[in-house]
Amino acid sequence: MKQFSKIFRILLCLMLSVVLVLSMSSIAMADEAKNEEVVLEGTNTIVNGDEVVTFEPVAQNQGMALYADMSNGYFYLENLVSGKKWYSVPIDSDIDPYTAGKNYTNLRSQVVIEYISASEVAWSSPQFANSYSDASFEVKKVSNGICVTYVFSALGISFDVEYTLQNGYLDAKLRLDSIKEDEFKVISVNVLPSFGAGNWEAEGYLFVPDGSGALVTFNNKIITTTNYKAMVYGTEATTVEETKKTNTESIRLPVFGTVTENNALMGVITQGDAVSYITAVNGHDRCGYNAVSSIFQYRFVQSQLNMFNKKNVNMLASPAVGLDAYTVRYYVLDGDKANYTGMASAYRDYLIKEKGFTKKTITPKFHVRTLGFYEEKASFLGVIPYTKKVALTTYSEAMEIAKDLTESGIDALSLQYFGWSNSGITNKKIPNAATPVGTLGGKKAFASLVDYCKQQQCVLVPEVDLLTFQKNGNGVRANKDAARTVFGKVVRRSEYILSNYVYKLQSDVTALVSPTKMDKVFTTYLESLKKQGITHVNLGNFGDYCYANYYLKDEQNRSLFPQKAEEILKKYNDAGIAVSVSGGNAYTLPYVSRVTDVPVCSSGYDMFDIDVPFYQILLHGYVSYTTKPIVQTADPKVTYLAAVENGSELLYNGMHEEASELFDTDYTRFYGSTWRLWKDTAAEQHKAYYPLQAKVADQEIIAHTEVAEKVYLTKYANGVCVAVNYNKTDVVLENGKTVGALNFIEWRENA
Fold first, then answer.
1. Final residue before a domain boundary, out of 699, 721, 740
2. Is 406 among the domain residues?
3. How would residue 381 be classed by pLDDT, with cut points 50, 70 and 90?
4. Least confident residue range of 191-200, 239-248, 480-489
5. Residue 309 needs a FRET pair 20 to 30 A away by CA distance; which of 51, 185, 335, 707 works?
6. Cα gap 620→589, rounded to integer Å
7. Domain stops at, among 699, 721, 739
């Protein structure tokens, strides 16, 4: 009996041990389940932390399918060709070992809003809320998708976003008529901040259209103080900056993308692009995801220094008008199209189908921005002040430069004449007529230059600034016709000191013509151009600026600027005037024959890993484009090589007078422009590069990649390949061809 009791106790202990082990195992499995995505077999249900997400099909077309959860509005977009699923929020965020706090909940949200109290605007700062932790949802099916109502009850804010599958893309549409507010006002809405995000283990990159374009490699471990954020079409001009943090490039194109697993997701802002930002986060030890998205700026908050208490006072601008929705299209790409070259091609297709973008006749040129004259303050007998016109290149001297460059071997010349009329290089008044000035030789000398250019097949392109001015005149008055801030102050722009990016106190400040006045200004000038018989014009900074006017009697939101610009450019096209602009914001591209001053790099933010010629890939074969003036760039040799790499035409600033003439003036930025200083180098570059340009000018770029360290290969549709070597030593390629140091080679594929 004692032996049986002993055996019983042993068995009981064993049973308890088994139960304990099983219990511990169950607890461990439960804990593990909390930290892993669990997909229930035979269903489309995902358990992610404390959420159970059940996706059901809501729309499908030939290439894509849309699945959505009808309780919280989460969705995924499936590429039916490759099988890749792009989730609206990360489905593995519960096991994210890096992201915490507000960043964590933002990444699990489909919208993040910025808001401010209406009664405390003057002294308070905008705050943020997200749909994951601060909102409730109402989800309903609509044609080809779902509509999600995001309700931020504590703030009295709600709005609808529709996610619908269209022919070839997914539309995310924030309906502006659905926005409801009370005490708290919406400042901005970040739509789908983590759509398609790559996690801490994924491989791929983000594309942002900063400058020429930049890539952010997944999980590059670079920690920045703030996420990347830049406004499409450049900073709002009515938000005056007393200093600039850096000398940055602008975003010209409302497009962004994510590439991973031989698949790409490309976003295009199709409505509200002028009032949007592009933002990106990269993976590092404080952030587990890599994502790029857009932000809709519903209102601007502007600040002004209160001179009494020396503190900034805020004021809200009017909300965006002229829009019924803020819309972002998402395209899926796969295979050999799943890269930044493929995205550039896809965005070009969008411009062709939706914006009337067409292929122009392209004859590559060597461009000289010829500097005419400038005005400086002087005095008679040291007592009586007056303004003196100082000629840098007269009309006859411009002809001399053209002849000399032609004799040097540059036989495809374009003279872009800057400062040839009105007040010269810097506007005093907005010009209302294209009138040659006596300082440069007058009408007769200008007519001789026009005739010479026609005979020599040299393109003469007068350049004019019709947006900035310093004083009243020609029907434009600063107190009535200039753009203003929400405080009613005329927007004043000035030059920055290059070393520290603060305003030059001694330089003249300029105002900007109100967008509502632009049509009259540009139409008046167009009539004068036609009378002069001028067939080409460069409208300069018209391709750079995009801004609002908050003067109550003449108010126009920034959202309407592209529409106004397109109407003006169409008038010039209809009049038979070939138009070029600098910078080239996206809305100008269907109407211009050439874009000048295109950057060959990005702004160089710490987060960026690689600069790419996305802008150039988009345009090549359709619209001509030039570099920025080569001599004035940081490294002219590198700029030349970059032009070869991305198919740019060359641009030099040129003048007849010695460069020392500009010493201690506001125009030192034109240092080294005397044509005699650079003509030999330019002639060598033209001789080496022009034959290549002639072969590929009308061809699309179909591939671009780094084939060796600091060696880049560009491939054109007709099979021409170009390899550019930025190293100081020769490099032998895999195909056995040698690229010389700081040089390039070309060949035709299969030849």
1. 699
2. yes
3. low
4. 239-248
5. 185
6. 12
7. 699
- The tokens describing 389, both together, are 């016109």
- What's the pTM value of the predicted model, to 2 decimals? 0.91
Rounded Cα distance between 649 and 409, Å, is 16
Q: What is the mean pLDDT of residues 330-347?
A: 98
Mark whether 661 and 620 lie in a shared domain: yes
> CB under 8 Å to 295, separation ≥6 — which residues?
188, 189, 190, 191, 229, 276, 277, 278, 279
Measure the CA angle with vertex 503, ends 497 and 509; round to 5°.
120
The length of the chain is 751
Return d(Cα 439, Cα 400) in angstroms, integer.
17
Is 25 a domain residue? no
| Residue 247: per-residue pLDDT | 60
d(CA 359, CA 346): 15
Residues 134 and 258 in one domain: yes
Distance of alpha carbon 292 from alpha carbon 340, whole angstroms: 14
Across 212-231, average pLDDT: 94
329 and 418, same domain (yes or no): no
How many angstroms separate the CA atoms of 63 and 169, rounded? 9
* Alpha-carbon gap, residue 415 to 651, rounded angstroms: 10
Residues 78 and 211 in one domain: yes
Residue type, 367: H
Indicate whether 440 belongs to any domain: yes
Q: What are the start-end ranges of the E strands in 18-155?
A: 38-39, 45-48, 51-54, 56-60, 64-68, 75-79, 85-87, 111-117, 127-130, 136-142, 145-152
Residue 42 has pLDDT above 50, yes or no: no
Q: Report yes or no on 485 lying in a domain.
A: no
Same domain, 448 and 576: yes
Q: Are 69 and 58 in contact (CB under 8 A)?
A: no
Mark whether 339 and 433 lie in a shared domain: no
Buried b (16+ CB within 10 A) or exposed e, 529-561: beebebbbbbbbbbbbbbbbbbbeebbbbbbbb
**How many helices, marked H, and strands, marked E, lie in the chain?**
12, 43
pLDDT over 80 (residue 379): no
C-alpha 513/C-alpha 484 separation (Å) is 10
Is-contact 279 265, C-beta < 8 A? no
- Dist. CA 475–CA 463, nearest whole Å: 21
DSSP 440: G
Number of domains in the chain: 3
Instruction: Find all residues with CB under 8 Å of 116, minimum gap 6, and list them.
Output: 124, 125, 126, 127, 184, 185, 187, 301, 314, 316
Average model confidence (pLDDT) across the chain: 90
Go through 470-489 and write b for each residue having 16 or more CB atoms within 10 A of its CB, e for each that does not. Answer: bebbbebebeebbbbbbeee
Q: Which two tokens stand for residue 720?
A: 């021409």
Three-state DSSP class for residue 579 = strand
Q: Express each pLDDT in 587-602 by its tens digit.
A: 999 999 999 999 999 9
For 526, phi then psi, to 5°, come to: -60, -45
Is 245 a residue whose pLDDT tops 70? no
Quick check: helix, strand or coil at residue 161?
strand
Quick check: helix, strand or coil at residue 341? helix
